Amino acid sequence: MNTCYLHIGIFKTGSSALQVYFARNAEKLAAAGIRYPDTGNRKRAEAGLITSGNGVWLARSLLPKSNFMQRADTRDAQLKLFAEMLGNGAGRDLLLSSEFFSDIEPAEMQRLADVAAAQGYGLKILLYVRDQAAYLESLYVQHVKRRALTADPESYIGAIYKDFLHLHFGTFVKGLQAIAGEDNVRVHRYPADDLFATASAYLGVDPATLEQPAETINASLPHKYLPLLLRLNRLKPPQSFSDQIVGALAALEEDVRLSGTARTLLPPALTAKIAGHFAAENDALARQLCIDGPLFPAREKPYISLEEAAASLDLDSITNLLGGLLVEQEKRLDRMDRQISALAARLR
Protein backbone atom coordinates (compact mmCIF):
# COMPACT_ATOMS: atom_id res chain seq x y z
CA MET A 1 0.00 0.00 0.00
CA ASN A 2 1.21 3.48 -0.86
CA THR A 3 1.27 6.33 1.63
CA CYS A 4 -0.52 9.66 1.64
CA TYR A 5 1.43 11.92 3.98
CA LEU A 6 -0.54 14.77 5.53
CA HIS A 7 1.40 17.55 7.22
CA ILE A 8 -1.34 19.29 9.21
CA GLY A 9 0.48 22.03 11.13
CA ILE A 10 -0.71 23.11 13.61
CA PHE A 11 -0.66 26.81 12.91
CA LYS A 12 2.37 28.81 14.11
CA THR A 13 4.73 25.82 14.21
CA GLY A 14 6.89 26.60 11.20
CA SER A 15 4.35 25.41 8.62
CA SER A 16 5.20 28.15 6.11
CA ALA A 17 8.90 27.26 6.35
CA LEU A 18 8.14 23.58 5.78
CA GLN A 19 5.94 24.41 2.80
CA VAL A 20 8.76 26.42 1.24
CA TYR A 21 11.06 23.47 1.97
CA PHE A 22 8.72 20.99 0.30
CA ALA A 23 8.13 23.22 -2.74
CA ARG A 24 11.79 23.97 -3.37
CA ASN A 25 12.64 20.29 -3.05
CA ALA A 26 9.67 18.91 -5.01
CA GLU A 27 11.88 17.42 -7.74
CA LYS A 28 14.19 15.76 -5.23
CA LEU A 29 11.22 14.40 -3.32
CA ALA A 30 9.78 13.07 -6.59
CA ALA A 31 13.08 11.29 -7.25
CA ALA A 32 12.66 9.65 -3.84
CA GLY A 33 9.18 8.47 -4.81
CA ILE A 34 7.15 11.19 -3.07
CA ARG A 35 4.97 13.59 -5.04
CA TYR A 36 4.41 17.11 -3.71
CA PRO A 37 1.93 18.24 -6.36
CA ASP A 38 1.55 21.84 -7.45
CA THR A 39 -2.04 22.88 -6.73
CA GLY A 40 -1.54 26.45 -7.90
CA ASN A 41 0.72 28.11 -5.37
CA ARG A 42 4.11 26.42 -5.71
CA LYS A 43 5.75 29.45 -7.35
CA ARG A 44 4.82 31.57 -4.34
CA ALA A 45 6.17 28.96 -1.96
CA GLU A 46 9.39 28.67 -3.95
CA ALA A 47 9.73 32.44 -3.60
CA GLY A 48 9.49 32.11 0.18
CA LEU A 49 5.96 33.50 0.47
CA ILE A 50 3.08 32.36 2.68
CA THR A 51 0.79 29.89 0.88
CA SER A 52 -0.71 27.60 3.57
CA GLY A 53 0.60 24.69 1.51
CA ASN A 54 -0.47 22.63 -1.46
CA GLY A 55 -3.34 21.12 0.53
CA VAL A 56 -4.92 24.43 1.43
CA TRP A 57 -7.87 24.24 -0.99
CA LEU A 58 -8.72 20.67 -0.02
CA ALA A 59 -8.44 21.51 3.69
CA ARG A 60 -10.53 24.67 3.41
CA SER A 61 -13.27 22.79 1.59
CA LEU A 62 -13.57 20.50 4.62
CA LEU A 63 -13.59 23.13 7.35
CA PRO A 64 -16.66 23.39 9.62
CA LYS A 65 -19.29 26.05 8.97
CA SER A 66 -18.11 28.02 11.99
CA ASN A 67 -14.76 28.70 10.31
CA PHE A 68 -14.92 31.78 8.08
CA MET A 69 -12.21 30.30 5.83
CA GLN A 70 -14.50 27.42 4.84
CA ARG A 71 -15.07 26.80 1.11
CA ALA A 72 -17.78 24.16 1.30
CA ASP A 73 -18.92 25.01 -2.23
CA THR A 74 -15.72 23.40 -3.53
CA ARG A 75 -15.86 20.25 -1.37
CA ASP A 76 -17.01 17.76 -4.00
CA ALA A 77 -14.57 19.10 -6.59
CA GLN A 78 -11.67 19.05 -4.14
CA LEU A 79 -12.39 15.50 -2.96
CA LYS A 80 -12.59 14.38 -6.59
CA LEU A 81 -9.25 16.07 -7.31
CA PHE A 82 -7.76 14.39 -4.23
CA ALA A 83 -8.91 10.98 -5.45
CA GLU A 84 -7.48 11.72 -8.90
CA MET A 85 -4.11 12.76 -7.45
CA LEU A 86 -3.99 9.45 -5.62
CA GLY A 87 -5.26 7.38 -8.54
CA ASN A 88 -2.76 8.91 -10.96
CA GLY A 89 0.16 8.34 -8.61
CA ALA A 90 1.77 5.55 -10.61
CA GLY A 91 2.79 3.78 -7.41
CA ARG A 92 4.35 6.81 -5.75
CA ASP A 93 3.54 8.28 -2.37
CA LEU A 94 1.75 11.63 -2.02
CA LEU A 95 2.55 14.56 0.29
CA LEU A 96 0.00 17.26 1.08
CA SER A 97 0.60 20.09 3.51
CA SER A 98 -1.67 22.68 5.09
CA GLU A 99 -2.11 23.92 8.64
CA PHE A 100 -5.83 24.17 7.86
CA PHE A 101 -6.05 20.37 8.09
CA SER A 102 -5.70 20.79 11.86
CA ASP A 103 -9.03 22.63 11.94
CA ILE A 104 -11.16 20.05 10.14
CA GLU A 105 -13.45 17.87 12.23
CA PRO A 106 -12.78 14.12 12.80
CA ALA A 107 -15.52 13.07 10.38
CA GLU A 108 -13.83 14.98 7.56
CA MET A 109 -10.40 13.57 8.42
CA GLN A 110 -12.02 10.13 8.29
CA ARG A 111 -13.43 11.05 4.88
CA LEU A 112 -9.88 11.77 3.65
CA ALA A 113 -8.70 8.44 5.03
CA ASP A 114 -11.56 6.63 3.29
CA VAL A 115 -10.87 8.31 -0.07
CA ALA A 116 -7.19 7.44 0.28
CA ALA A 117 -7.96 3.81 1.19
CA ALA A 118 -10.23 3.46 -1.83
CA GLN A 119 -7.23 4.37 -4.01
CA GLY A 120 -4.87 1.99 -2.21
CA TYR A 121 -3.25 4.56 0.08
CA GLY A 122 -2.79 4.62 3.83
CA LEU A 123 -2.80 7.91 5.71
CA LYS A 124 0.23 9.07 7.70
CA ILE A 125 -0.04 12.31 9.63
CA LEU A 126 2.77 14.68 10.62
CA LEU A 127 1.92 17.10 13.42
CA TYR A 128 3.88 19.76 15.28
CA VAL A 129 2.69 21.06 18.63
CA ARG A 130 3.73 24.16 20.55
CA ASP A 131 3.32 25.55 24.03
CA GLN A 132 -0.21 26.94 23.95
CA ALA A 133 0.63 30.34 25.41
CA ALA A 134 3.45 30.83 22.89
CA TYR A 135 1.14 29.65 20.12
CA LEU A 136 -1.61 32.06 21.11
CA GLU A 137 0.78 34.99 21.36
CA SER A 138 2.19 34.22 17.91
CA LEU A 139 -1.34 33.84 16.55
CA TYR A 140 -2.25 37.24 18.01
CA VAL A 141 0.68 38.89 16.22
CA GLN A 142 -0.31 37.09 13.00
CA HIS A 143 -3.87 38.40 13.27
CA VAL A 144 -2.58 41.92 13.84
CA LYS A 145 -0.50 41.50 10.68
CA ARG A 146 -3.04 39.83 8.44
CA ARG A 147 -6.55 40.39 9.85
CA ALA A 148 -6.37 44.09 10.79
CA LEU A 149 -6.89 43.22 14.46
CA THR A 150 -7.17 46.20 16.82
CA ALA A 151 -7.69 44.48 20.22
CA ASP A 152 -5.00 44.23 22.88
CA PRO A 153 -3.41 40.79 23.45
CA GLU A 154 -4.87 40.16 26.90
CA SER A 155 -8.50 40.75 25.95
CA TYR A 156 -8.22 39.00 22.56
CA ILE A 157 -6.39 35.88 23.74
CA GLY A 158 -8.32 35.73 27.00
CA ALA A 159 -11.58 35.47 25.05
CA ILE A 160 -10.54 32.74 22.61
CA TYR A 161 -7.93 30.43 24.13
CA LYS A 162 -10.40 27.72 25.20
CA ASP A 163 -11.96 27.48 21.73
CA PHE A 164 -9.15 25.75 19.82
CA LEU A 165 -9.83 22.02 19.69
CA HIS A 166 -6.42 21.30 18.20
CA LEU A 167 -4.74 22.86 21.27
CA HIS A 168 -6.21 20.13 23.47
CA PHE A 169 -3.30 17.99 22.39
CA GLY A 170 -4.00 14.74 24.20
CA THR A 171 -7.55 14.48 22.89
CA PHE A 172 -6.62 15.81 19.44
CA VAL A 173 -3.84 13.28 18.88
CA LYS A 174 -5.98 10.41 20.16
CA GLY A 175 -8.62 11.36 17.60
CA LEU A 176 -6.08 11.33 14.78
CA GLN A 177 -4.74 7.97 15.92
CA ALA A 178 -8.25 6.52 15.88
CA ILE A 179 -8.47 7.41 12.19
CA ALA A 180 -4.95 6.77 10.86
CA GLY A 181 -3.66 4.27 13.42
CA GLU A 182 -1.45 4.87 16.43
CA ASP A 183 1.77 4.21 14.50
CA ASN A 184 0.75 6.52 11.66
CA VAL A 185 0.62 9.79 13.59
CA ARG A 186 4.00 11.43 14.25
CA VAL A 187 4.09 14.28 16.76
CA HIS A 188 6.99 16.67 17.27
CA ARG A 189 7.43 19.64 19.59
CA TYR A 190 8.10 23.05 18.06
CA PRO A 191 10.64 24.60 18.23
CA ALA A 192 12.50 21.99 20.32
CA ASP A 193 12.62 19.39 17.52
CA ASP A 194 14.45 20.29 14.31
CA LEU A 195 11.74 21.16 11.79
CA PHE A 196 13.39 20.04 8.55
CA ALA A 197 15.20 17.00 9.94
CA THR A 198 12.06 15.58 11.57
CA ALA A 199 9.89 16.13 8.49
CA SER A 200 12.48 14.54 6.21
CA ALA A 201 12.93 11.59 8.54
CA TYR A 202 9.19 10.91 8.58
CA LEU A 203 9.19 10.93 4.79
CA GLY A 204 12.15 8.57 4.77
CA VAL A 205 14.39 11.06 2.94
CA ASP A 206 17.91 12.01 4.00
CA PRO A 207 17.73 15.71 4.98
CA ALA A 208 21.29 16.18 3.76
CA THR A 209 19.99 15.72 0.20
CA LEU A 210 17.44 18.52 0.50
CA GLU A 211 17.90 22.30 0.47
CA GLN A 212 16.82 24.17 3.59
CA PRO A 213 15.51 27.76 3.34
CA ALA A 214 18.27 30.18 4.28
CA GLU A 215 15.91 33.09 4.90
CA THR A 216 13.34 33.66 7.64
CA ILE A 217 9.88 32.58 6.43
CA ASN A 218 6.79 34.41 7.72
CA ALA A 219 8.86 36.58 10.04
CA SER A 220 7.18 37.77 13.20
CA LEU A 221 6.53 41.45 13.70
CA PRO A 222 8.84 43.02 16.30
CA HIS A 223 6.91 44.01 19.42
CA LYS A 224 7.86 47.66 19.14
CA TYR A 225 5.90 47.99 15.88
CA LEU A 226 2.72 46.35 17.20
CA PRO A 227 1.20 49.45 18.84
CA LEU A 228 1.71 51.39 15.61
CA LEU A 229 0.13 48.68 13.47
CA LEU A 230 -2.78 48.32 15.90
CA ARG A 231 -3.52 52.00 15.39
CA LEU A 232 -3.15 51.75 11.63
CA ASN A 233 -5.53 48.77 11.63
CA ARG A 234 -8.32 51.12 12.71
CA LEU A 235 -8.18 52.43 9.13
CA LYS A 236 -8.91 48.87 7.89
CA PRO A 237 -5.91 48.56 5.55
CA PRO A 238 -5.71 45.69 3.03
CA GLN A 239 -3.63 42.69 4.03
CA SER A 240 -1.01 43.68 1.46
CA PHE A 241 -0.20 46.78 3.54
CA SER A 242 0.90 44.84 6.62
CA ASP A 243 2.66 42.30 4.36
CA GLN A 244 4.72 45.16 2.96
CA ILE A 245 5.61 46.34 6.46
CA VAL A 246 6.69 42.88 7.56
CA GLY A 247 8.54 42.30 4.29
CA ALA A 248 10.40 45.56 4.65
CA LEU A 249 11.40 44.79 8.24
CA ALA A 250 12.35 41.21 7.43
CA ALA A 251 14.99 42.58 5.08
CA LEU A 252 16.65 44.16 8.13
CA GLU A 253 18.24 41.17 9.83
CA GLU A 254 18.75 42.94 13.14
CA ASP A 255 15.04 43.69 13.49
CA VAL A 256 14.16 40.06 12.73
CA ARG A 257 16.60 38.80 15.34
CA LEU A 258 15.24 41.27 17.89
CA SER A 259 11.61 40.52 17.07
CA GLY A 260 10.55 40.35 20.71
CA THR A 261 11.06 36.63 21.34
CA ALA A 262 12.93 37.41 24.57
CA ARG A 263 9.79 38.95 26.11
CA THR A 264 6.10 38.10 26.08
CA LEU A 265 2.98 40.17 25.48
CA LEU A 266 0.97 37.93 27.81
CA PRO A 267 0.60 39.03 31.44
CA PRO A 268 1.78 36.37 33.91
CA ALA A 269 -1.76 35.79 35.20
CA LEU A 270 -3.06 34.98 31.71
CA THR A 271 -0.08 32.74 30.96
CA ALA A 272 -0.77 30.81 34.16
CA LYS A 273 -4.48 30.53 33.33
CA ILE A 274 -3.70 29.13 29.87
CA ALA A 275 -1.16 26.66 31.30
CA GLY A 276 -3.67 25.48 33.88
CA HIS A 277 -6.43 25.00 31.32
CA PHE A 278 -4.29 22.76 29.09
CA ALA A 279 -2.22 21.00 31.79
CA ALA A 280 -4.12 17.70 31.73
CA GLU A 281 -4.10 17.58 27.92
CA ASN A 282 -0.35 18.23 27.81
CA ASP A 283 0.30 15.58 30.44
CA ALA A 284 -1.73 13.09 28.42
CA LEU A 285 0.30 13.75 25.26
CA ALA A 286 3.57 13.62 27.22
CA ARG A 287 2.60 10.13 28.39
CA GLN A 288 1.74 9.08 24.84
CA LEU A 289 5.13 10.31 23.63
CA CYS A 290 6.92 8.70 26.60
CA ILE A 291 8.33 12.07 27.66
CA ASP A 292 9.74 12.05 31.17
CA GLY A 293 8.67 15.44 32.47
CA PRO A 294 6.50 18.26 31.13
CA LEU A 295 5.55 18.38 27.46
CA PHE A 296 6.93 21.91 27.18
CA PRO A 297 9.49 23.73 29.35
CA ALA A 298 8.16 26.41 31.66
CA ARG A 299 7.87 29.87 30.08
CA GLU A 300 10.20 32.29 31.81
CA LYS A 301 9.96 35.33 29.56
CA PRO A 302 9.51 38.73 31.19
CA TYR A 303 6.28 40.54 30.36
CA ILE A 304 6.24 43.59 28.10
CA SER A 305 3.11 45.74 27.82
CA LEU A 306 2.05 47.47 24.63
CA GLU A 307 2.91 50.78 26.31
CA GLU A 308 6.45 49.60 26.97
CA ALA A 309 6.73 48.29 23.43
CA ALA A 310 5.58 51.64 22.02
CA ALA A 311 8.15 53.47 24.13
CA SER A 312 10.95 51.49 22.46
CA LEU A 313 9.95 52.73 18.99
CA ASP A 314 12.86 55.11 18.39
CA LEU A 315 13.83 57.27 15.41
CA ASP A 316 15.88 54.50 13.80
CA SER A 317 12.93 52.12 14.02
CA ILE A 318 10.56 54.66 12.45
CA THR A 319 13.11 55.33 9.70
CA ASN A 320 13.38 51.60 9.04
CA LEU A 321 9.61 51.29 8.84
CA LEU A 322 8.95 54.29 6.60
CA GLY A 323 12.00 53.71 4.44
CA GLY A 324 11.13 50.05 4.02
CA LEU A 325 7.55 50.90 3.06
CA LEU A 326 8.73 53.42 0.46
CA VAL A 327 11.10 50.86 -1.04
CA GLU A 328 8.36 48.21 -1.11
CA GLN A 329 5.96 50.65 -2.79
CA GLU A 330 8.59 51.51 -5.40
CA LYS A 331 9.13 47.81 -6.10
CA ARG A 332 5.37 47.30 -6.51
CA LEU A 333 5.11 50.26 -8.91
CA ASP A 334 8.06 48.96 -10.89
CA ARG A 335 6.46 45.50 -11.19
CA MET A 336 3.16 47.06 -12.30
CA ASP A 337 4.96 49.21 -14.87
CA ARG A 338 6.74 46.19 -16.34
CA GLN A 339 3.52 44.16 -16.42
CA ILE A 340 1.63 46.96 -18.15
CA SER A 341 4.45 47.39 -20.66
CA ALA A 342 4.49 43.67 -21.38
CA LEU A 343 0.71 43.63 -21.86
CA ALA A 344 0.84 46.64 -24.13
CA ALA A 345 3.53 44.96 -26.23
CA ARG A 346 1.37 41.86 -26.67
CA LEU A 347 -1.65 43.93 -27.71
CA ARG A 348 0.19 45.83 -30.43
TrEMBL record:
SUPFAM superfamilies, sorted: P-loop containing nucleoside triphosphate hydrolases
Q: Which InterPro entries does the record associate with it? A: P-loop_NTPase (IPR027417)
Q: What is this protein called?
A: Uncharacterized protein
What's the source species' lineage? Bacteria, Pseudomonadati, Pseudomonadota, Alphaproteobacteria, Kordiimonadales
